[in-house]
Amino acid sequence: MQNRVIILGSTGSIGRAGLEVIGGLGPECSVAGLAARSSWKALAEQARYWKPAAVAIAEDRHAGDLRAAVPPQTRVLSGAEALAELVDTVECECVLAAVVGSAGLPAILRTVELGRRLALANKEALVAAGPILMNLARRSGAEVIPVDSEHSGAFQAMLAGHRREIRKVCLTASGGPFRTWSAERMAGATLEQALSHPTWNMGPKITIDSATMINKALEIIEARWLFGLDPEAIEVLIHPESVVHALVEFADGSIIAQMGTPDMRTPIQYALTYPRRVTCPSPPLDLRELGRLNFEPPDPERFPAVRLGYEVARAGGLAGAVFNAANEAAVRLFRNGEIRFPEIVELTALTLARHEPNPQPIIDDLLAADRWARNEVARCLTC
Ligand SMILES: NC(=O)c1ccc[n+]([C@@H]2O[C@H](COP(=O)([O-])OP(=O)(O)OC[C@H]3O[C@@H](n4cnc5c(N)ncnc54)[C@H](OP(=O)(O)O)[C@@H]3O)[C@@H](O)[C@H]2O)c1
């Protein structure tokens, strides 16, 4: 069966891994469209190799250079709406959403409206607009298949029983580079230290999210909307080896775990080929070599972000959009050297506490809350 794929965020860590997976899937799978923010040279190189029908670049100023560098049959779209236009105008079976941050939301909503399969890595979109996105998917019949390794693991383990039989879903966390650090030591953590993840090789924003454990908070919220779970039925377990990605406990007490090497090509491929399983370029997991698996609960004192994830998952409404945007803004400040490491979570929590709740937001309310939270983080910094 033909599988034409659009990759949003093709120049990033997940996007590049996605292209590698597509290359391994053979002629049944092809690249229909590619998109990035500003990396026009990398995007042009990908377009010359994959020959998609169109490419999109969010930053308008690169459109001319990109146009001159892509094959003549590849259309170039540019500007803030370009990713959604790409999804709208290019025929495909699947969209791999691998943009970082809530910027990916409009194109993701369009994908789901059109009833196409959404292979979702861009967790921030689901955090900001979970109920709206999942309702749209229910109406259009679009399949939303998670790429995040924990959610892919949970999705696979859930197939062992009925949804109503699920008692608990456990998402594992590596614990990040500061798993064993004291709060005092973390207060002086540098950008370089925050970017040194022990098990996963990922883009910079999610690597910092892993260091603060806001990544796990985002994943609790993601699981809440994606699987329609009560926040109380979602558990987080630190598992430094990162080979058990998720565990699902059923009514009879049986726990089904999904395991594999920490390599994003496996969940990306599964989201593209589901329900089929085919050979994947990831190396196989060798449990004899690994010897043992460790698990421990997260420390709420050193990693308060996890508690925030539950709060936001319970609150719904605008809380997800505010939490996500505040974190994006705070991570940017940390990367620019304007705040210390613990201030990422502090500023995010402060912004969340100050937002005006709205239990039934429409998409314009979410976008306004996203803008408000970014401004509020900047304002907090000056007060
Ligand atoms: N990396 C992982 O292993 C991993 C694992 C699980 C989940 N995820 C999730 O997957 C998503 C992508 O993560 P990543 O690590 O691959 O990020 P990344 O390496 O930073 O790549 C981000 C991609 O998004 C594009 N992009 C950023 N802002 C954009 C905008 N405003 N408009 C259009 N394109 C934009 C970038 O284009 P430019 O190159 O032009 O900037 C790049 O192609 C995130 O939501 C992350 O949480 C990642």
Residue share in helices?
Answer: 40-55%
How many structural domains are formed by the residues? 2
Specify the biggest β-sheet. Answer: 7 strands, parallel
Intertermini distance: 58 Å
- Helix count equals 17
* CATH architecture descriptor text of the largest domain: 3-Layer(aba) Sandwich
Mean pLDDT: 97
**Unreliable stretches:** none
| Helix and strand composition category | alpha/beta
SSE pattern: EHEHEHEHEHEHEHEHHHHEEEHHHHHH
Overall morphology? globular
Strand content: 15-25%
In CATH terms, what is the fold-level topology of the largest domain? Rossmann fold
CATH-level-4 superfamily name of the largest domain:
NAD(P)-binding Rossmann-like Domain
Q: What is the number of E strands? A: 11
Bound molecules: NADP nicotinamide-adenine-dinucleotide phosphate
Oligomer designation: single chain
Going across the major beta sheet, what is the strand order? 4-3-2-1-5-6-7
Which CATH class of the largest domain applies here? Alpha Beta
- Over all CA atoms, what is the radius of gyration? 20 Å
Detail the topology: elements first, then pairings.
Layout: E1 3-8, H1 13-25, E2 29-36, H2 40-50, E3 54-57, H3 63-69, E4 75-78, H4 82-89, E5 94-97, H5 105-113, E6 117-120, H6 123-140, E7 144-146, H7 149-158, E8 166-173, H8 183-187, H9 191-194, H10 204-212, H11 214-226, E9 234-238, E10 244-250, E11 255-259, H12 265-273, H13 287-290, H14 305-315, H15 319-335, H16 342-354, H17 363-382
Parallel strand pairs: 1-2, 1-5, 2-3, 3-4, 5-6, 6-7, 8-9
Antiparallel strand pairs: 8-10, 10-11
Bound molecules: NADP nicotinamide-adenine-dinucleotide phosphate (NAP).
